[in-house]
UniProtKB/TrEMBL annotation:
<feature type="domain" description="HIT">
    <location>
        <begin position="4"/>
        <end position="113"/>
    </location>
</feature>
<dbReference type="InterPro" id="IPR001310">
    <property type="entry name" value="Histidine_triad_HIT"/>
</dbReference>
<dbReference type="GO" id="GO:0003824">
    <property type="term" value="F:catalytic activity"/>
</dbReference>
<feature type="short sequence motif" description="Histidine triad motif">
    <location>
        <begin position="97"/>
        <end position="101"/>
    </location>
</feature>
<protein>
    <submittedName>
        <fullName>Histidine triad nucleotide-binding protein</fullName>
    </submittedName>
</protein>
<feature type="active site" description="Tele-AMP-histidine intermediate">
    <location>
        <position position="99"/>
    </location>
</feature>
<dbReference type="InterPro" id="IPR036265">
    <property type="entry name" value="HIT-like_sf"/>
</dbReference>
<dbReference type="Pfam" id="PF01230">
    <property type="entry name" value="HIT"/>
</dbReference>
<dbReference type="InterPro" id="IPR019808">
    <property type="entry name" value="Histidine_triad_CS"/>
</dbReference>
<dbReference type="InterPro" id="IPR011146">
    <property type="entry name" value="HIT-like"/>
</dbReference>
Length: 114
């Protein structure tokens, strides 16, 4: 499999880790769109949110819990942050390994669909 996020999970591609446990890993985005921009991914390869099955619901809870912890540890939990999951090409997904963006560190503008 030629998945960049799977290679980060394996450790063959380096990342600036913010959080890791048995199920998920979080790291700084290399092209940040906000002062704080982290990615939280499951260690299990799941291509997109459309591929999450009932057996993965607990894993999705782990992803959200890790996002919450990243927000707290980066100091954006109190002032606010945004979680974003792009699904499919039209939704803006570029890497087809499910991931959640944690964005914050400044006042974020409204989402306008562009």
């Amino acid at each position: 499999m030629d998945c960049i996020f799977c290679k980060i999970v394996e450790g063959t591609i380096p990342s600036k880790k913010l959080f890791e446990n048995e199920h998920v890993i979080a790291f700084h985005d290399i092209q940040p769109a906000a002062p704080v921009h982290a990615l939280v991914i499951p260690k299990k390869h799941i291509a997109s949110i459309n591929d999450v099955g009932p057996e993965d619901w607990g894993l999705m809870g782990e992803v959200l819990r890790a996002a919450q912890q990243v927000a707290a540890e980066t100091g954006i939990a109190e002032t606010g942050y945004r979680l974003v999951n792009n699904c499919g090409s039209d939704g803006g997904q570029v890497v087809f390994h499910l991931h959640v963006h944690v964005l914050g560190g400044e006042k974020l503008g409204p989402l306008n669909g562009k």
